[in-house]
UniProtKB/TrEMBL annotation:
Assigned GO CC terms: cytoplasm
Family statement: Belongs to the galactose-1-phosphate uridylyltransferase type 2 family.
Top EC class, one word: transferase
Domain Galactose-1-phosphate uridyl transferase C-terminal residue range list: 240-433
Catalytic activity: alpha-D-galactose 1-phosphate + UDP-alpha-D-glucose = alpha-D-glucose 1-phosphate + UDP-alpha-D-galactose
One family name in Pfam for this protein: GalP_UDP_tr_C
Protein name: Galactose-1-phosphate uridylyltransferase
UniProt KW keywords: Carbohydrate metabolism, Cytoplasm, Galactose metabolism, Nucleotidyltransferase, Transferase
InterPro entries (alphabetical): GalP_uridyl_Trfase_II, GalP_uridyl_Trfase_II_CS, GalP_Utransf_C, GalP_Utransf_N
Amino acid sequence: MERKTLISAFVEQIIAKTDFSQLDQIYLYNRILNLVDGVDKTGDYTDKSLIELADLLVNLGDTERTAGQKELLKTELLNFLVPAPSKVNQIFWNKYQQQGVNSALKYLYQLNQASNYIKTAEISKNKYFRYQSKYGELEITINLSKPEKDPRDIARLQKLAPTSYPQCQLCFTNEGYQGRIGYPARSNHRIIRFDLLNETWGLQYSPYAYFNEHCIFVDQKHQLMKIDRLTFRRLLTILDIFPAYFVGSNADLPIVGGSILSHEHFQGGRHEFSMDQAKIRQKITFTDFAHVKAGIVDWPMSVIRLSGKNKEELVELATKILNSWKNYSDEKVAVIAASDHQPHHTITPIARKRGAEYELDLVLRDNHCTKEFPAGVFHPHPDVQNIKQENIGLIEVMGLAILPPRLQRELAEVEKYLLHQPNQIAEKHLHWTEKILQQYDGKITAENVTSIVKQALGATFVRVLEDAGVFKNDSVGQKAFNRFVDYVNE
């Protein structure tokens, strides 16, 4: 058994994995000793990873640390692994120039994993399965990665003076930020700067990734999200810089938009979604754009797909479709462009490369509300909100369901109900669960109940997407979709 102190074991791995040398050993030991309140512990740490050692270190010293305080300390400890922002950018762009874009992205991604900026262990807690629908294979996740808040942290937060720094969680000022109770630690956060149409933008990875190499492209300026001609130009230009990734934007209106509308940003990554694989249901043409291939996608939401080699033609046509949609109403199918001087129409755009061609999906969105549907006419309707009542954003538009963590506990009670066992099923799930009982009519067993509930979840997600589709996939809806295409062509 090789015995050494915990801090020494941590320092050894930091030196082995970074540009620090043995000459820095005492310096590193003392800096870490200070962070853990002057306490060290002897033991056998031979088989421990760097992150496992960090988990042990946060439990040294102050035994009253909350989960939030431990996370702040752990992030600060793992920051020793990460070079300064200037160095990370230098390494990234050197690799990009000498070895190619994939080598550069691999470096950045692995650095984020090693330093625990990407919460690999927490992400692994998410529940994931696939559901075969008439639209293709959808992905269903129950998001369990984000830790629950400690009541002690909540109490401390109430006593802290309000602050507006950083302005939001996407601002560049998060880079290296220590964090605080109620605000995530960002000591180990690094942003790759790049020029995007003569503006400075940043590339970073998502700490709680929903798919492979889930990244965020961020405007250096803190300004409101806006879908317009410039959006389409930015998306297609990003594909020139990072062609292996898709890139898309949440819509820029409430209800149909993402969770952060206050800062211009896109999402991307190395992942093929169900919508990417969806076929064209109906080819369409647009006047004066003979070189752009276009079609209506066979998908529960209303999607126009454009493809071609000429980037500027795609931008022009996408802008024409967006501007037409902003002013288009068809009350026969409850499509309302505006009311009370409030706009209701925008687009969720998604771009990708297919060989030498650009492909741009334009998902039509409408956020108007009525007395019957106060949460939104084209939002998950009340009968499926027991499963999903949050916004349908970019990722879900493409066929990956992000379901709330409450479902892990609630669906366990649903399974008990289906098996006629004592349960505490939530009232909101009763109607949904009774429909499952009727569908399977006495064929539910302890062996198949989990699979049956998963199938019901998948079917409900299909309904959620269909609710969000502005032109329904029936004869009435498709005729209405064609009326809109005719309107664009006028």
